[in-house]
Specification:
Number of helices: 22
Structural class: mainly alpha
Oligomer: single chain
Radius of gyration: 28 Å
Strand content: under 5%
Number of strands: 0
Length: 361
């Protein structure tokens, strides 16, 4: 069917047709556009923009949702129609807010300003959000939107926007955890986040543990961060670990590397394999992992194992690799109590920052 025929049908439908008639003509018009969109120039698209835009204002919700879903993935969809759909109620707007490339940063800011939280949350799901959009969402979106945009790993943040996020994270443990997964935080701000995470850990520990035990576990949190920052040379180019690294890589690629494998290596006293396995599963470098398991901080491994959700039995096996610690029953019992009382959420939060710190060294 030609555009001219559809235009004539449209005029008649707009004058005399029912809602179903309008939905039918819109569906036919959208079919025609989608079948020819790849070869259209801007002038041809603009014709559909006017016609579809006019008709879409006179159809019911279900048909507008379908139109939004069909146009969202089209790179040269009629921009006026897409903006119109983006400003509709959220069921209609969501597909284009999440996926349409026709919406510019300016469009997204305008929608955020004109609509409410639901529209902003949809926008936070877009890939490659630009700085003007993230700045506005942080400024006007509230806590839920702020958390959502911070969790978007492809979103870009201005220096000011990231600074605001870090400032808020000082009083927001959940935001700390979210930011701890990012790799684009400036070094000076990452130091602030690390300090906030350690302070949060101390607060939780002081509330939940006996004073003496709280001091011991808080020390593990502090020294765990220091362990990651330490530079340790494990032979030249990790020569002593080359065989273990290859074996762990093979297991990991085969999907066979897990906690039970770590426990197996520890029980067998295979220190190199155990270290390489922990490094892979904890997503930490080998120098940092060596410090955590074998370094001067004897409790850092509790933090990492708890953060990974491992059992005490696996953790005890790793502790036993230490000749200065693993054989003392009293030391093992103290470690067990510390491990049991260390909240997993606290350990996970600090582990996230250990990873971020390690990635920067």
């Amino acid at each position: 069917m030609s555009v001219s025929t559809l235009l004539r049908d449209l005029e008649a439908t707009m004058l005399r047709g029912s809602t179903d008639d309008r939905a039918q003509i819109l569906s036919r018009l959208t079919d025609l556009f989608l079948s020819t969109a790849a070869g259209m120039d801007d002038d041809q698209v603009s014709v559909f923009d006017v016609v579809i835009g006019r008709l879409s204002r006179a159809i019911e919700l279900r048909a507008r949702i379908e139109l939004s879903e069909r146009l969202a993935p089209v790179s040269n969809a009629p921009s006026g129609v897409v903006r119109q759909l983006a400003l509709d109620e959220i069921a209609v707007a969501r597909p284009v807010l999440v996926g349409s490339k026709r919406l510019t940063d300016q469009d997204l800011v305008a929608v955020s300003a004109a609509k409410g939280r639901d529209h902003m949350l949809a926008i936070t799901e877009r890939p490659d959000l630009g700085e003007p959009v993230t700045d506005f969402l942080i400024l006007r979106g509230g806590r839920v939107v702020t958390h959502a945009v911070a969790a978007n790993q492809t979103a870009r943040f201005s220096r000011h926007g990231m600074g605001v996020l870090v400032m808020r994270a000082v009083q927001d443990d959940a935001l700390q955890a979210t930011l701890g997964m990012r790799r684009d935080i400036p070094s000076e701000l990452s130091e602030q986040l690390m300090a906030a995470a350690k302070n949060a850990a101390r607060r939780r520990i002081s509330v939940n543990l006996e004073p003496g035990l709280a001091s011991a576990v808080a020390g593990a949190v502090e020294r765990g961060a220091q362990a990651v920052a330490a530079e340790t040379q494990i032979d030249e180019d990790f020569g002593l670990f080359s065989g273990a690294l290859e074996e762990i890589k093979r297991l990991n690629e085969a999907g066979e590397l897990n906690e039970s494998k770590v426990a197996e290596f520890a029980r067998a006293g295979s220190t190199e394999h155990a270290m390489c396995a922990v490094a892979a599963l904890a997503q930490l470098g080998l120098p940092a992992t060596e410090q955590i398991i074998m370094g001067p901080d004897r409790e850092a491994i509790l933090l990492v194992a708890r953060g990974l959700g491992w059992s005490w039995e696996t953790t005890a096996g790793l502790i036993a690799l230490r000749k200065d610690y693993g054989k003392s029953e009293a030391a093992i019992e103290r470690a067990r109590q510390s491990f049991r009382n260390l909240a997993q959420t606290t350990a996970q939060r600090v582990l996230g920052f250990l990873r971020m710190r390690d990635a920067r060294l």
